Amino acid sequence: MAEIETGERIAKVIARSGLCSRREAEALIEQGRVDLDGQTVQEPGTKVLPGQRVTVDGEALAAAEPAGLWRFHKPKGLLTTERDPQGRPTIYDRLPAGLPRIMPVGRLDLNSEGLLLLTNDGGLKRRLELPATGWLRRYRVRVYGRVQQSDLDRLSHGVTIDGVVYGAVQARLDSQSGSNAWLTFRLREGKNREVRKLCDHLGYRVNRLLRVAYGPFQLGALPEGELEEVPAKVLREQLGTAATPAPGKIDSGGHARRRR
């Protein structure tokens, strides 16, 4: 209701249309290329009310797409960013053509793999990333070292490392084979490189890190490098958010395969 009464920031309206990011929309406004009801917009904070017409370079915006969510099995060796100044490969180099503009929910670092959620809606992205949401992230971690469950149990009370406070983490030893062990980590904060820093703190060197769940969304059997849209019904059940119907599974070559 508040949005109907007060309107929505014009840069956000442009971004939601899929034309560009909010930051890029602000640049378009600064360049004088955006009009609202025929008048050039000067401020990116200008509010758009229902029924008003926004144009960019004289062209009307496309209608905003419904919020959607995708599961991507991120391979190791890809950055979770749109562009890299050093020219390293990013997740966008593996995503198929023809998608709306989608953004990652949280991040996985270069050497981490597994479930990465992507969305075309900035509001949904912020909602899923908020610490207040408290969604459990689950990781499978392979470390070098002889692991003691008693060491892992110390994490359940939270720890402070280099002045950074990490909340309670559930960690379990799954198996030990020679000098390598598989662990399961469950955490809710997801701070930068949190699992690696916690393992380093305990004296264990991570040699593989795989995220297998983010809240109710699971990696499951999704093959490496493939993308699959979360069905609208599932998204509504989990978030109360409308979404477009799922188009089927898309592999890294851009081919859609319908579910049977």
Detail the topology: elements first, then pairings.
Blueprint: H1 2-6, E1 8-9, H2 10-16, H3 22-30, E2 34-36, E3 39-40, E4 47-48, E5 54-56, E6 59-60, E7 69-74, E8 103-105, E9 113-119, H4 122-129, E10 137-144, H5 149-153, E11 159-161, E12 164-166, E13 170-177, E14 180-187, H6 194-202, E15 205-214, E16 217-218, E17 227-229, H7 232-239, E18 249-250, E19 256-257
Parallel strand pairs: 9-15
Antiparallel strand pairs: 1-4, 2-3, 2-5, 5-6, 7-9, 7-17, 8-9, 10-14, 10-15, 11-12, 13-14, 15-16, 17-18, 18-19
Helix pairs in contact: 2-3
Low-confidence residue ranges: 241-260
Query: Structural class given helices, strands, pairing?
Result: alpha+beta
Q: What's the CATH first level of the largest domain?
A: Alpha Beta
Largest sheet: 11 strands, mixed
Shape summary: elongated
Helix/strand order: HEHHEEEEEEEEHEHEEEEHEEEHEE
CATH superfamily of the largest domain: Pseudouridine synthase I, catalytic domain, N-terminal subdomain
The pLDDT mean sits at 86
- CATH domain topology of the largest domain: Alpha-Beta Plaits
Task: Give the DSSP E fraction (strand runs of 2 or more residues).
Answer: 25-35%
**Helix content bin:** 10-25%
Tally of contiguous helical segments: 7
The count of domains is: 3
Q: What's the Cα radius of gyration?
A: 21 Å
CATH architecture of the largest domain, please?
A: 2-Layer Sandwich
Q: How would you name the oligomeric state of the polypeptide chains in this document? A: single chain
Total DSSP E strands: 19
Distance between the termini: 40 Å
Protein name: Pseudouridine synthase
Keywords: Isomerase, RNA-binding
Enzyme class: isomerase
Domain RNA-binding S4: 8-65
